[in-house]
Amino acid sequence: MAETAGEAAQRSVWLEGKARRRGRGGGGQPSGLDRERITEVTVRLLDAEGLAKFSMRRLAAELNVTAMSVYWYVDTKDDLLELALDAAFGELSLPDLDADEDWREQLRALARSYRTLLVHHPWLSPLAGTFLNVGPNNLAFSRAVQHVIRRTGLPTRGLAAAVSSVFQFVYGFGTIEGHFIARCTAVGMTPDEYFQHAMSAVIRAPQAADVVRESEDIVAARGGGTVEEMWERDFDFALDLLIAGIEAMAERG
Question: What's the rounded Cα separation, in Å, for the pair 179 and 34?
């Protein structure tokens, strides 16, 4: 029977009681294997080969077991991907919520940590938009973000929008940066080499010439001798803009 929209919206390994399972028990359960190891290897494979190439058969080969052995610990590939997603969120550096630290610095730290996560795991951004993402590590991140945003002085009606403005920006920035780096790696170039080749092609393209010419002053003022330096300057300045906007809106009440 076809799955209803309501059923699809509620489906999650974290909501169905399957995330706590350690194996089904009974004879035939493979030795030397557990949920944590399977999830760890899944993350490693996704980092190395990407989401499109990931399969339960490929995972089983990496674990040196049969594909059916993996199903002692997870019911579906989606369950495993959702577990891997939350495991990656466990890498985030969260602030001490009891510390007497300025909210601006805590917000910058959370934003930078989230950007690093997205860059290091390019497969994470599509999964974050696919699953409900209510595992313990993501909930801890969400709680930290909410705690910091509440300290900005914004009215309650603006808190959700403030979270969106900062972390949807970070999501987009980190996703593009991560995919760019992955593309460079795939063709065997450094980001600087790839950028120079791409810009050379764009400059020669007649349909792009006017746009390039009109943006010369912006590119010159951007600064940075490498792609990484340009990204850092852009990210920090954009984040400062968002924080300044939060301050201004908080003052307006």
Answer: 31
Q: Cβ–Cβ contacts within 10 Å for residue 250, how many?
A: 14
CA distance 168 to 165: 6
Q: Mind listing the pLDDT tens digit for each residue in 1-30?
A: 455 655 566 689 999 877 776 665 544 555
Largest CA distance in the chain: 70
Sign of the C-alpha dihedral, residues 170, 101, 230, 249?
positive
Which DSSP symbol is given to 2?
Answer: P
- Six-digit token pair at 44? 């490693």
Do 40 and 157 sit in the same domain of this protein?
no
Residue 238 CB burial class (10 angstroms; 0-12, 13-18, ≥19) = middle
Residue written as token pair 């065997």: 188
Whole-model pTM: value is 0.90
Instruction: Looking at the structure, tell me whether residues 76 and 143 fall in a common domain.
Output: no
Q: What is the tally of structural domains in the chain?
A: 2
pLDDT (tens digit per residue) in 180-210:
999 999 999 999 999 999 888 888 888 888 8
